Amino acid sequence: MTVMESNREPGMKFYVGVWIGLLIIAGVEVLLTYQGFSTGTLLAVLLILAVCEAGIALMYFMHLKYERSTLFWSLIPVTIFVLLLMDHFWADALRLTRLRVWPF
Amino acid sequence: MSESEVALGGAGHAAVMEEPAYAVPPKKLTIWLFIISDAVSFGTVLFVYGYLRVGSTNWGTPFKFSSILNGMIMTFVLLTSSLTMLGAVLAAKAGRKSSSVKWMGLTALLGAIFAALHLREWSHMIAEGWRLFQNPTGGSVEFGAAFFSITGLHLLHVTCGVIAIIVVATGFNRGRLTEGHVETTGLYWHFVDLVWMFVFPLMYLMNAAR
Predict the structure, then answer these.
(1) Distance between CA A65 and CA A58 in Å, rounded?
(2) Domain residue ranges of chain B, discontinuous segments joined by +
């Protein structure tokens, strides 16, 4: 195997299993929507499930699991870090434009 | 001994060059860098939406179950298109060109169906009086701005993806493009799918009439 080749990848049958798993998570999201949670709780629950879905898609559909780990460690942690920084500072940005303390 | 070999101490390039850190072709690394920057773009708009949504006191939940059902069908179509794109990539890597082209054709068709369903949803909303800065239910006018901007940005990505898949499938069929092009197009398409995994719960489910 040359250095440019990915690690051993599974076949179509495995990916069909992943696809079914993702469909089930999407179905659970819809079910939870109608359980009468408060807005904040529903947002948190849906975000957790969406992150799980995205992680599965990233690792299997986008083959990141079968690439060298250096690719994963170079791209993903820093992206999550940037997104978390945004999460932390957007509230301040909005507060400044409205001159009010969040929540508005 | 060449000048460069002298500079390298006579050992030659092979002896001193490190193995590539990522071990992926340049095309693939480039699309990964694009995906990361695009993920940050989507992250930005979704975070802004999240704060507006949670912070607003009169946001409203206008989506009836018919809209949620439409969103569920769209999710099914887009997830299935990711699976067919995987079929195209696996077939291309295995040297089965015609099979790969067929899978890509199916993926493009599913992408077009997704776009059509999306536009149908938009046309229903516009008919009800929703605009970028107009809310027919009397709630926050920012809902229309957030919904049309975020879903519009995603729809733009889907449209570009469908065009890219058709171009790559044609080029691959004619022998102008390689399986590497199919794989990088696949990565982009999976990313479009990944973004929808956030757009659907945040834009549709969070605004479902309960």
Answers:
(1) 8
(2) 25-207
Taking the CB of residue B104, how many other CB atoms lie within 10 A of it?
Answer: 28
| Domain B25-207, architecture per CATH | Up-down Bundle (1.20)
Let me know: does B189 contact B139? Beta carbons within 8 Å: no
CA distance B76 to B88: 18
d(CA A39, CA B119): 27
Distance, in Å, from the CA atom of B108 to the CA atom of A85, rounded to the nearest integer, reads: 36
- Interface predicted TM-score of the whole assembly (ipTM), two decimals: 0.87
- For B205, the closest of A30, A62, A67 (CB atoms) is A30
Concatenating the DSSP letter of every residue in B94-143 gives TT-HHHHHHHHHHHHHHHHHHHHHHHHHHHHHHHHT-BTTB-TTSS-THH
- Mark yes or no for CB contact A12/B55 under 8 Å: no
- pLDDT digit string (tens) for B22-74? 778 889 999 999 999 999 999 989 988 888 887 788 888 889 999 999 999 99
Residues paired with residue B208 on neighbouring β-strands, in sequence order: B63
| H helix runs in chain B, sequence order | 3-7, 13-16, 26-55, 65-93, 97-128, 142-174, 179-199
Residue B140: the pLDDT is: 86
Q: Is B208 helix (H, G, I), strand (E, B) or coil?
A: strand
CA of B131, closest CA in chain A: separation in Å? Answer: 23
pLDDT at B55: 78
The structure's pTM equals: 0.88
Contacts of B24 in chain A (CB under 8 A): 4, 6, 67-68, 71
Q: Which residues 6+ apart lie within 8 Å of A24 measured at CB?
A: none
Q: Is B195 within 8 Å of B154 (Cβ atoms)?
A: yes
